[in-house]
Amino acid sequence: MESVERYELTFPVSGDSIIVSRTERKGAGGHPVYADETGIVQAEINEQGQVRMVASGGHQSHDVPVRAVPVP
Fold first, then answer.
1. What is the pTM of this model?
2. Which long-range contacts does 12-19 make (Cβ < 8 Å, 24+ apart)?
3. Burial level of 41, CB count in 10 A (0-12/13-18/19+)?
4. CB 31 within 8 A of CB 44
5. Long-range CB pairs of 13-18, under 8 A, 24+ apart, other chains included
6. What was the pLDDT predicted at 8?
């Protein structure tokens, strides 16, 4: 299976969309971790497009994206 290098995450509360790119890291579930340009927004995304947000700093809490869409 070919791995996805980038996803667009859309957040339901704010309506914001953010592009995240694959990193070398794996999350707690063993799936790739993706991060935005700043490294602040990080998410573990599995093959089915399910997202688990990863805190990149203390006391950080992210809204869960409504969707993760692969970006060509």
1. 0.86
2. 12/63, 12/65, 12/66, 13/63, 14/63, 19/71
3. buried
4. yes
5. 13/63, 14/63
6. 96
